[in-house]
UniProtKB/TrEMBL annotation:
SUPFAM superfamilies: SP0561-like (SSF140683). This is DUF1858 domain-containing protein. Residues 17-67 form the DUF1858 domain. NCBIfam families: prismane_assoc (TIGR03980). PANTHER family: BSL7085 PROTEIN, DUF1858 DOMAIN-CONTAINING PROTEIN.
């Protein structure tokens, strides 16, 4: 996992733009709900294992920083 230093409150992020979607959902099951909430059907998609979060956000028209924050919140809530 990435320790991407995001812009939110100066805290180290668990997820970065380069984090692979498939790895993320496998390592942090709580993030699946975030993808579903944004109608991103990455679950079961064969491209998820090579698609990173930044590419997925770009493809679906979702602001990257906001999405990364939601992913981090989901992970923190599951911990």
């Amino acid at each position: 996992m990435s320790s991407y230093q995001g812009s939110t409150a100066g805290a180290a992020r668990r997820v970065g733009p380069e984090t692979l979607v498939g790895d993320l959902m496998s390592d942090y099951r709580a993030t699946i709900a975030v993808f579903i909430r944004h109608k991103m059907m990455c679950i079961g998609c064969p491209v998820a294992r090579i698609h990173d979060v930044e590419e997925a956000c770009r493809e679906h028209g979702i602001p990257l920083e906001r999405f990364l924050g939601e992913l981090d919140a989901a992970i923190a809530g599951a911990a």
